[in-house]
Amino acid sequence: MYSLTVKLTLFLPLSQSLKDKRRVRRAVIDRYQKKVLIKEVATQESWQSLTLGFALVSLRESDLYQQLDDLLYDITESGEVELQSRDFELVKL
């Protein structure tokens, strides 16, 4: 079994306030919380930066990377956010 922990830092170019940021954060978390454990982990006071942490678990390593690619595509597809950085760690259990 494998676990993949991921930290994404997203740029919100259309965000003009923390209220705008919270709207985007809530939409992302609501959409994916049934598939992965996802939380805001940093940059809480920055209104144009959103840092999310999440975890994926699978029996095959290749499935984890495919899930990660699909998730990144879905999150950035809307155009509301741009991917600034991603850090991840794979653990074999």
How would you portray this structure in words?
The structure is a single chain. The relative contact order is 0.34. This protein starts with a strand and ends with a strand. It has a single domain (2-92), classed as Alpha-Beta Plaits (2-Layer Sandwich). The protein is α+β, with helices and mostly antiparallel strands. The chain contains two helices and four strands; from the N terminus they run βαββαβ. The radius of gyration is 13 Å and the shape is elongated. The mean pLDDT is 90.
Explain briefly what this protein structure is:
By secondary structure, the protein is α+β, with helices and mostly antiparallel strands. It has helices at 18-32, 61-77, and strands at residues 2-11, 37-42, 49-58, 82-92.
N-to-C series of helices and strands: EHEEHE
Average pLDDT, rounded to a whole number, is 90
Helicity level, as a percent range? 25-40%
**Strand pairing plus helix content: what structural class?**
alpha+beta
Q: Name the assembly state.
A: single chain
Uncertain segments: none
Tally the structural domains.
1
Q: What order do the strands of the largest sheet run in, or round the barrel if closed?
A: 2-3-1-4
- CATH homologous superfamily designation: TT1725-like
Beginning-to-end CA distance, first to last residue: 5 Å
Indicate the CATH topology.
Answer: Alpha-Beta Plaits
The CATH architecture comes to: 2-Layer Sandwich
**Cα-atom Rg, whole angstroms?**
13 Å
Helical segment tally? 2
Beta strand %? 35-45%
Tell me, briefly, the overall form: elongated
- Please tally the β strands and state the result: 4
Largest sheet: 4 strands, antiparallel
